[in-house]
Amino acid sequence: MPTSPAVEIIPTTQRSLNKKKFHVAPYVLILPAIIMLLVAMGYPLVWQIWASFQHFGLAQQFGAPPDFVGFENYVAVFTSTQTWAVVARSLAFCLVNAILTVLIGVGIALLMNAVNKAIRLILQIAMLLAWAMPVVAAVTVWIWVFDWRRGIINYLFGLGTHNWLGTSLSLYFVATVIVVWMSVPFVAFSVYAGLTQVSEEVMEAAQLDGASGIARFFEIIVPMIRPVLMIVILLQVIWDLRVFTQIRMLQDAQTPLNSDLLGTFIYRLGVGSGDFSMASALSIFVLIITVLFSIAYVIQLVKEDS
Amino acid sequence: MRGKIAVAALGIAAALVMTGCGTTGGTPTGAATSAGTETTAAAAKTPEDITFWLIGGDTPQELRDYLISQYKAVNGGTLTIEEQTWGDIITKLTTSMPDAANTPDVTEIGNTQSPTFTNIGAFLDISDMYAELGGSKLLQSFVEVGEVGGKNYTLPYYFGSRYMFYRTDVWKAAGYNEPPKTLDDFNKAVIDITAKNPSNIKDFSGLFLGGQDWRNGISWIFANGGELATVNNGTWTSTLSDPNTIKGLQQLQELQQKASMAPSTAKDQSPWLYINDTDSAKEEDGTVTSTSMLAATIMAPGWAHWSIGNLEQVDGKDSRVWDDSKFGVFALPGNDGKPAPVFAGGSNVGISAKSTHVEGAKDLMRIIFSKDYQEMLGKNGLGPANSDYVSALGDDQFAQALIASASNSKLTPAAPGWATVENSLKLEEFFQKVADGGDITALAAEYDALITPMLNGK
Amino acid sequence: MSTQTPTKRFRIRPSRIIAGFAAIVVALIWVFPVYWMISSSLLPNVVLTSTTPRFFPYGGSFDNYGSVLSAGMKDGQWWTSNFMRAMGVSLSVTLISVFFALLFAFLAALAISRFKFRGRKSFVLAILFIQMLPAEGLFIAQYKMMSSLGEATHGLIGLNSIIGVSILYIAAVIPFTVWMLRGFVAGVPAELEESAQVDGCTPTGAFFRITFPLLAPGLVASGVYAFLQAWNEFTIALVILQKEDMRSLPLWLRTFIQGSQARETDWGAVMAASTLVAIPVIIFFLCVQGRLTSGLVAGAVKG
Known about the structure:
The complex is a heterotrimer of chains A (306), B (458) and C (303). Chain B has 458 residues and is an alpha+beta fold.
């Protein structure tokens, strides 16, 4: 990704417009995106906020009038120890996964950069294959790889009938393997693209001299790929906090105690148990937490961007 | 899969020596009785195109084809059958059923899910058809979960109570030549077989029962006179702490600790894998890999017998062939001379309250409850809703075990919030903690407090 | 494993050998689940349920594929099978989503990287924060909305409609694609276009001949992202695409897996089905591979 600061020069196509004056062009340009977001998210978001102040269960879904309950749902969410336990687990899961993904991704990007063309191609194709695996298919394969009775992991490591999905911690370990495996290719390619823009002399100097190479990596390369890293880290955190499909499918296979993360918890509350108002309140609550956690980072990101 | 049934049926017919069952009289493996016989002329009715949701692949294709052609003949309209999955059916029903434009006209629904949806008015009152569709001949425990305030909303579609599959050879080697006659004998036997481990297999289970498998586990509660919940003046109370329930749970815990090596997080999926002995094929170099038998006894729905047996080549394909010298079935016995009350698996069927094609939907209900269709269900191993046609199941050992186990089977409480309880996975948690050796009285009190509000939740 | 260095280098350095070796090991680890899926898809279920895994699919056949592809066929025509119908739905939804998401995101990226305007910052913040809303709570409302839209538009945009579900997907990927493209657009100096115009191009011509090719890698990269999102998504699809013949591939695969589990999970068939779902993406990826990886470096950005 480019490291040059955003250019403020008006493109030639709009040369006739003076940048000091108010002009319509940018608004016209962002309009389609905004319309799409409003159409798809506007009403659902408004409904969600509305529902979070009602009592809205399965009966209301089937036509009974909802009752306004004020902040009752929020109070329930906020005071439930279960909510906080799920939030804590989700944060821990998200941090571990994001950190592992970024570290391994950067490592693989450096590898791509360090090896010759043929090996690089092999590595890139392997990454692409993993990246291309549809989530449902990938999780299915991994569940089977970790199967307690016929899984290849138990066979290869002589673990007998170790049940990998037997406790929530162990289930999270499997989920981490899956999530990291699936997300690393994106990070690796993005960072690799960033690396290719660091001039070759710098790269060679940095990667060659053993121990001092590590120092140079942090002093030279990291600053240069910082913009890519910043955004990749943010995205991984956002995505890993919302992880849903992987956990849900693992839970479909086996459900150890207390294995819900935020995504599956909201789903179980809402569509699963028919308590849509609590699910809505929890969603808004999660949005607020995420924004609070990331606001400093995001502001920094936006500042660097402009 | 169809092929395997035929194979299994042949195997049974060939070797029905030791179990003392009558001859099978040929279990027809379901050649569709041709539909055209009772074509009620579509009188002056306007044909209606309707949608019918089936859940899972339990209803075989020929039965679906029969419904479609018969519906065409009776109503003139087109019946569209859409297959849903058990994992997502609640999501689908919750979104679609309140929506007149997109609701299925008729839908199958899990019998334990039925109370929640009938209580909130998702289904049409079909009390006026009740007698016509079979009335008191219909399986009453299923009728009850589709009933609210004396009105009928959903009716039984099919039943499939679970019974025991066991390794006769392993049981014999441990000194048991006959299936047990009482529940106490059964419990003792499987614990003893586990201890003796006649085949000397690592992690061997006399009875393979997953820790979270409450659907099978509740049989021990029911058999000791316990209940999951009771209703009083319309208010439901979770009764895990009831002395009889506790007694059943104690037996279950003992079995979990001493007879079952299944993971405590295992549910009721595919237990039959564990009682086959050659679960592996011959390798190319001729070596045969180690036996994979892990259990002497499992509890499973009747159709599991298609997946149980010796591994043999049939028509060039590896298939399971039932072998009476190794495998047997019996209904879990109770302590009162009757079979134990086991969980009655199966589902209900009803018309959506929002359906705009009520006449067509009713036509379909009439076809489903007709003699022909009920017998077709029976011939395919699915317990027919109407007791008049249960004989269609045949009289082989599987049919006998199914009928015996169903004769005393029980359903989960018909509480409005039962689906919520199931979806919350609290029962899985509770049974797992019991299986892991937790303090039953304390756990029961804890989960009673959690489940009672859910049961009544509106 | 050769660590042949490019011609202009003279020495084979030990660090390169280690790196090459490490790269191969990493590649093997990453590719293993994919290999395992394909290998298993060729084996009969009785072999797969054995406690001893078979590492190479000897004795394999394409039987599993046959049974997967023939399920739900009408009149014995393979293209009417459930799988092919789901493939049609997935392809349509994915192509529509990718095209419009890229178009709209590109326009928005142009706005935020080439213009200073009131509301720019809020827009940027909004697209970052909107991704933080948990999607699992929105389903009911999205269903209700699509149901009403469907009545208003006679099914054109609504439940069980390609356009309906595409709109939800486009909205889901726009925030990220805007952000990603913004970087690429900003990286193309406007001077380049100006100099092209000096050379006699029209403004539009300059854009398409100079700027657009430079953006291609960025478009490919964000296109890949949008493609994967639309191709993989199944929770929105579960709620919106309820009709059996409107199921997308992930839904079809899930139905297939769950249907199979109800009796005895036919792992061979499940793996064959998974492979079939993965193949189009793999083909797509191998096609754009060059652009995705090396294209990013292309000339003008660096120089």
